[in-house]
Amino acid sequence: MLLEDKGDLDGAEALKREVFEGCRETLGARHPNTLSSINNLGSLLQAKGDLAGAEALYREALEARRETLGDQHPGTLNSMSHLGGLLKAKGDLDGAETLFRKALEGMRETLGDRHPDTLGSINCLGLLLKAKGDLDGAEALHREALEAQRETLGDRHPNTLTSINDLGVLLKTKGDLDGAEALYREALEAQRETLGDRHPSTLTSINNLGFLLEAKGDLDGAEAQLREALEGQRETLGDRHPSTLVSINNLGGLLKDKGDLDGAEVLYREALEGCRETLGDRHPDTLNSINNLGMLLQTQGRLGDAILLFREHLEGCEARYGKGHKETRSSARNLVEVLKKAGRQRQADEIATTYGWSPRVRGRHRTISTLSRARDPGRGEHTPRCERIPRDCS
User: Fold this and answer.
1) CA distances from 372 to 45, 86, 148, 287 (A)
2) Which CATH class is domain 261-381?
3) Which sequence spans correspond to the domains of the chain?
4) Whole-model pTM?
5) What are the pLDDT digits (tens) for 70-128?
6) Architecture of domain 1-69
């Protein structure tokens, strides 16, 4: 996990493939350790943005575990959660919900309501419901998980603090900013005390508090938090780690909101360059950085440069998600709007017609929803833990 934690995803992939091949050759394709190595490689591919490759591996592991272990075995339920998280990342929220609910039901039956894996599954389903817009359903699940963790693990346990942050994110989404702030500050205070100021979880909480202050209109307070988080990530993770690049992008967005367009541009360009180098041109974070820089250039009136970026973004979205996907259609809409502003109505009409909506309807120009800038990082996606492989398999 060291290379992955440092952001060296290519190096981590090479090692995980080596483990997988070694397990398959020495233990067989259906051995539990081989199946764990399949899931671990799938998690790495998902982190790299190779969703198709990850899905194939997750489905292979799940099918094998159903056959060899049964539907209610913890390993099978773990594979269901992995695949559910992958479907959520692909936008198949209904498919993800089906798997998350099956996994949670199985864990409740076999492990009990207070088992750590059950509580993690509750949180996963809560995040899924949040993504689907069922905020009340999500809140009920997050509160259930948090209450159980306070009782069984204590208020200062890392899992409890993560759940506090998760509930805070949910309350912020529901508009309860004061309730969210109380939770964010509780989590941050405890993490500073127990983990230190530079621990990744502490830096996540600092980021979350910064976003909350931004939402409450305290832009100076938000900037102080986001700069502290970014400084910590640069020191501990490096300038090219995916989490650092997200924070660079987020601080750029705040500076843009404050009217410091030149400062925002410097950060947006750094984030984009880093994403291209470490993640590739078609990774969701890279596409988001392309879009954000294009939006900034449009705000500055540099429409020609903005159009080039919006075209690249549209091509990337279509290649990654498909022509009819909502992200691709939203990207097309943004390109059409900037083409109109540049006086290129015919090109705008052609793009609008190609992507299946009326070119003459004036729509609100909006930021692409994929990996939107001002996101509460939390733990990112609640993907299940990496499964341990014994040394005799590596």
Assistant:
1) 21, 19, 31, 10
2) mainly alpha
3) 1-69, 261-381
4) 0.76
5) 999 999 999 999 999 999 988 899 999 999 999 999 999 999 999 999 999 999 999 99
6) Alpha Horseshoe (1.25)
